[in-house]
Automatic annotation (TrEMBL):
Protein family (similarity comment): Belongs to the IF-3 family.
InterPro entries: T_IF-3_C_sf, T_IF-3_N_sf, Translation_initiation_fac_3, Translation_initiation_fac_3_C, Translation_initiation_fac_3_N
One GO CC annotation: cytoplasm
Species this protein is from: Candidatus Magasanikbacteria bacterium CG11_big_fil_rev_8_21_14_0_20_39_34
Boundaries of every Translation initiation factor 3 C-terminal domain copy: 96-180
Name by which UniProt lists this protein: Translation initiation factor IF-3
Keywords: Initiation factor, Protein biosynthesis
Molecular-function annotations in GO: ribosome binding; translation initiation factor activity
Length: 182
């Protein structure tokens, strides 16, 4: 039996703007293409003003009282709004929490690999959760796990400026800490 999945609708980068005859308000506040306030006019008067200039009347803020419209070339206006949205989307970075797992018996080579990974994550702006999992008889000696985390922190601190967001704490059979850039 075939399973059908609904495709997610792709939302446009900019909201939908009403233009010219699609504007439903009776009275509107009109702005020029430079952003100057021209005053409150009836919709027919505002449309006539836009036609005289040979450009469109675009509803900027429909929720205002009266709604705000701008006399501007719609294709250029839409391009500028999409450009702003793309730039804003490119500048956003969601900080993730990346996980690094160590053990009490970790070797020097493995520790340097984890150090490089952690530094890479921190340079990207992510937080790093350092975990030491205690197994068997290690559970009775949690102090060693705290020492491993502090040693790891000191190794990373030589190259990058970091601090603990969450100090090392014991939770069940794990000792965890969260490291961030200062």
């Amino acid at each position: 039996m075939r399973i059908s999945r609904k495709k997610k609708s792709i939302q446009p980068l900019i909201p939908h703007f009403r233009i010219n005859d699609k504007i439903r308000a009776e009275e509107v506040r009109v702005l020029s293409d430079q952003g100057d306030n021209l005053g409150v006019f009836s919709i027919t008067e505002a449309l006539r003003m836009a036609e005289e200039q040979g450009i469109d009347l675009v509803e900027i803020n429909p929720k205002a009282d009266p709604p705000i419209v701008k006399i501007v070339d719609f294709s250029h206006f839409k391009y500028q709004k999409e450009k702003e949205a793309r730039k804003q989307k490119a500048n956003t970075h969601v900080t993730d929490i990346k996980g690094i797992r160590l053990s009490i018996r970790i070797g020097v080579g493995d520790l340097t690999i984890r150090q490089k990974q952690t530094e890479k994550f921190l340079k990207r702006g992510d937080k790093v959760k350092v975990e030491v999992i205690l197994r068997g008889r290690e559970k009775g000696n949690a102090a060693l796990a705290f020492d491993v985390i502090r040693k790891f922190f000191a190794l990373i601190e030589e190259n990058t400026n970091i601090k603990f967001e969450q100090e090392p704490t014991k939770q069940g059979n794990k000792v965890t800490a969260i490291i961030i850039n200062k």
